[in-house]
Design a protein that fits this description.
Layout lengths: L1 E7 L1 H18 L9 E7 L4 H12 L5 E11 L4 E6 L3 H13 L19 E4 L7 H11 L3 E14 L2 E9 L3
Antiparallel strand pairs: 1-2, 1-6, 3-4, 3-6, 4-5, 6-7
Helix pairs in contact: 1-4, 2-3
C-alpha cells in the first residue's frame, strides 16, 4: 500500500511522539506507531515514482503553511485516537490538488476522497473497547492545543505496519 502524507516540523512532531508514547504506555502496547503525519491519500497498489510524477508539478511550488491542532478525536471502527487540525484554506487546497492529480490512479481508499476525508494525525490504533474511555481520559489530560507547520509531502510504502519512505518533496519556506 502506498500513502501520500503531509509531514510536520520537528517541534510539532516531538509533541506527537510524546502523545504516542503516553498512549502506548497507557494501553500497554509496545508496537511503535508510524512517524507523525497527516495522511492525504492511500492507494492499494501504485507505483511510487508514477505518483511522484503526478504530484510533483504543483507540489514543488507549494509553500510551507501553519496548522493548528485544537482537538482530539476517535474512530470507532479501528479503535483509533487522533489529533485533529483546524481545516485551513492551504490544507484544503493541497488535498484538492492531490485528489485531482491522482484521480487516474486505481485503488484509492474512499476515506481520503475530498467529500469523506477527515484530516487527522493518528496517535494510536487498534485499542480494544474496554480501554477507550480510560485512554481518552488520559490523552485529554495530556493534550494541549498546539501549532504545527506542514513542511513536506512524502510517499510511503506501508507493509505490515512499517513505512518506507519512497520520496519526499519539501515545501518552500
Amino acid at each position: 500500500m502506498q500513502v501520500i502524507v503531509l509531514r510536520l516540523d520537528y517541534q510539532s512532531s516531538t509533541i506527537f511522539e510524546q502523545l504516542q508514547q503516553q498512549a502506548q504506555n497507557a494501553a500497554s502496547k509496545q508496537k511503535a506507531a508510524l512517524p507523525p503525519h497527516l495522511t492525504l491519500q492511500s492507494f492499494t497498489h501504485s507505483n511510487p515514482l508514477e505518483l511522484k510524477k503526478a504530484i510533483e508539478p504543483w507540489a514543488v511550488k507549494m509553500k510551507q503553511f501553519s496548522l493548528s491542532f485544537a482537538s482530539l478525536g476517535f474512530f470507532k471502527q479501528q479503535g483509533s485516537f487522533y489529533a485533529a487540525p483546524v481545516v485551513t484554506k492551504p490544507l484544503a487546497q493541497m488535498h484538492s490538488a492531490l485528489s485531482l492529480s491522482t484521480q487516474e490512479f486505481t485503488g484509492h481508499n474512499a476515506f481520503y476522497t475530498p467529500d469523506q476525508w477527515v484530516p487527522h494525525a493518528t496517535i494510536i490504533n487498534h485499542i480494544a473497547p474496554p480501554f477507550w474511555g480510560p485512554l481518552f481520559a488520559r490523552l485529554s489530560m495530556e493534550f494541549k492545543p498546539f501549532a504545527a507547520k506542514a513542511v513536506a509531502i512524502e510517499c510511503w510504502s506501508v507493509v505490515q505496519g512499517k513505512a518506507q519512505t519512497e520520496w519526499s518533496i519539501f515545501l518552500l519556506e
